[in-house]
Specification:
- About 50% of the residues lie in helices and about 20% in strands.
- The strands form four sheets. The chain has an eight-stranded mixed β-barrel, surrounded by four helices. Strands 2-1-3-4-5 form a five-stranded parallel β-sheet, with helices on both faces. A five-stranded mixed β-sheet has the order 7-8-6-11-12, sandwiched between helices.
- It has 22 helices and 20 strands.
- Strand 19, helix 21 and strand 20 form a beta-alpha-beta unit.
- It is an alpha/beta fold.
Length: about 575
């Protein structure tokens, strides 16, 4: 209950003001009453002091009560003030207009009595308090709905709504630039898979904490979901200024994170789009930033990428290619060719290579295989390659015994599947092929993260009898630890090193000789792939690299041509 209330009476009629004062004074309640006859003076009263209730005449000479109330509500001290509209008449339309404008009640002057006015004031005050509680609850719920519960950052909804407002502001100031950046942590799934989701969540919290420290008050940032963050910076003068902000973000991740005793190194990829250069809506800008971020993820050094118009065409190409790949994997539109592997000019094996002759967009494996890996088609395609290779070559392998080696490529994505080893061993058993005749070719990227499931699959397949070859050795991730930790039987030296050996540059030749000596000291079989000239073949022989593969000898060919060639 209220001990006393501060009341402001606003009415241009002296008699009406006196009548209201008399009615208030006749109640058993304490009122501190201030009266004003002019709207401007009433506004000044609310500028310097607060009132619990304002009794406001609807019909004023210069302004009606609703218009005046809207002005008064903007005054500094109108924070807990209830408004009661007082009128000589009150039809339904007026009452609704007054309530919709923010009045808590409307009373007729002819009905004013001490008890009725007291009841109206108390009800208006209570109604106002309930409205405020409801509004405070709404604001709390709205804030919760706009915050990310894990990191405490704003979420996607708030970011997109705020970005929309910044764009509207930017339209009024065309000389200023607004930058939109999307940031995605690199290899975050690997961290979750290796250390668990709890560690992954803690990493996100610590990343968000670092971002808070490097961002300024006028810069908007949010967590969109997963390991993806968004940033918006307005009132910029140049692209370089935006890039500096992006590099500030990347710099925040430079130091490792210590989580539950694990030292975790985290990096990120940032895509940058600019308003109004790259778009005039938040949808366009975020789409462009996302495309640029996708490009940044493909780079190992430059992790901040600015959107360019040609990127849109590349994304569209990949999307269409992905769609066609999914269809092709369902309809088995692929086929296998085999490229011979030779030792001392004799064919001792062949590598199965997938071909896509019906493709309308590209038939190049170096273009469609990476897309298949990104969209998840590679698991189905890789299994088909294995089945088809065994189906086509089983009779020949069984006839020749272990004298002929069939090499089959395996994607890093396949190796991370828990059931991969068992599915391969089952296929080999179904075709009654000796596992010693099969070599699995894996790339160094498959071993880069030292995924536990990958290592378990490789060890299980090696134990079953398959041989493991490390393909593309020397492409930049080479590590002796890979050769020691994994059951590697042979190494295929990347064609880039073989190709560079044509150069008379002594460093290139010295490097190739050093690689060969190292691998031979580890008793590993070495295959030189990509040989295209007699000079390359001769130099490899000088280094005792006797296993050769390349166009100098044979191009990939269908199974029938391979069998005829060997026969």
């Amino acid at each position: 209950m209220y001990n006393e209330l501060n009341v402001l009476i606003i009415d241009d009629d002296d008699i009406e003001r006196t009548s209201l004062k008399r009615a208030l004074s006749s109640t058993d309640f304490i009122y501190n009453i201030v009266e004003e006859s002019e709207p401007q003076k009433a506004l000044q009263q609310l500028t310097y002091q607060s009132f619990d209730v304002v009794l406001l005449d609807y019909l004023m000479p210069s302004v009606n009560g609703i218009e005046l109330m809207l002005k008064l509500k903007k005054a500094p001290f109108v924070c807990d003030t209830a408004f009661i509209m007082v009128s000589n008449y009150a039809d339904d339309e007026l009452i609704l207009d007054a309530i919709n404008a923010g009045a808590q009640d409307v009373v007729l002057k002819e009905d004013v009595t001490p008890s009725q006015l007291k009841r109206s004031i108390l009800q208006a005050k209570k109604r106002y308090e309930l409205e405020q509680e409801l509004y405070d609850s709404y604001r709390h719920m709205k804030k919760m709905a706009e915050l990310d519960s894990l990191t405490g950052l704003y979420n996607r909804y708030h970011f997109e709504e705020s970005l929309l407002q910044r764009i509207k502001t930017g339209l009024r100031h065309p000389s200023e630039i607004t930058a939109v950046m999307l940031l995605d942590l690199d290899k975050f799934k690997h961290i979750n898979d290796t250390y668990g989701h709890n560690v992954g969540d803690q990493l996100l919290v610590q990343v968000a904490s670092r971002f808070k420290k490097v961002f300024r008050s006028n810069e908007l940032f949010a967590r969109l979901g997963g390991d993806e963050f968004a940033f918006a910076c307005g009132q910029l003068k140049s692209l370089n200024e935006a890039k500096q902000i992006g590099n500030r973000l990347l710099g925040a991740l430079a130091e490792p994170f210590n989580i539950d005793g694990h030292v975790i190194h985290s990096s990120a990829s940032v895509g940058l789009a600019m308003f109004p250069v790259n778009g005039n809506t938040q949808t366009e800008l975020m789409k462009c930033a996302d495309i640029a971020m996708y490009r940044a993820k493909q780079h190992t050094i430059e992790k901040l990428c600015v959107y360019e118009d040609n990127m849109q065409a590349e994304i569209l190409f990949k999307y269409k290619l992905e769609t066609e790949l999914r269809r092709a994997s369902m309809e088995h539109d692929f086929e296998l060719h085999y490229q011979p592997i030779l030792k001392d000019n004799l064919i001792i094996g062949a590598e199965a290579l997938v071909r896509w002759p019906q493709a309308s967009m590209t038939q190049r494996p170096d273009e469609f295989i990476p897309v298949a890996e990104e969209c998840g088609v590679i698991q189905k395609l890789g299994l088909w390659v294995f089945k088809q290779a065994l189906k086509e070559m089983a009779d020949y392998l069984n006839a020749t015994g272990s004298d002929f080696m069939l090499s089959i490529n395996v994607s890093p994505c396949q190796l991370t599947e828990p059931g991969f080893a068992s599915s391969i061993t089952s296929l080999i058993a179904q075709h009654d092929v000796s596992p010693e005749c099969i070599t699995l070719e894996i790339t160094e990227t498959a071993l880069l993260n030292e995924n536990v499931t990958t290592l378990e699959n490789l060890k299980a397949l090696h134990k079953f009898g398959l041989k493991i070859a490390l393909d593309d050795f020397g492409t930049g991730y080479s590590s002796l630890s890979h050769l020691i930790k994994c059951p590697i039987h042979s190494v295929k030296i990347d064609r880039s090193i073989i190709d560079d050996s044509k150069s008379q540059h002594s460093m290139i030749k010295t490097m190739l000789a050093g690689v060969a000596n190292m691998l031979q000291s580890l008793n590993m079989k070495i295959v030189a792939e990509g040989i295209e000239t007699a000079e390359q073949a001769s130099y490899c022989n000088q280094l005792n690299i006797n296993y050769h593969q390349g166009y100098y000898y044979y191009k990939p060919m269908p199974r029938s041509a391979l069998v005829n060639l060997i026969s």
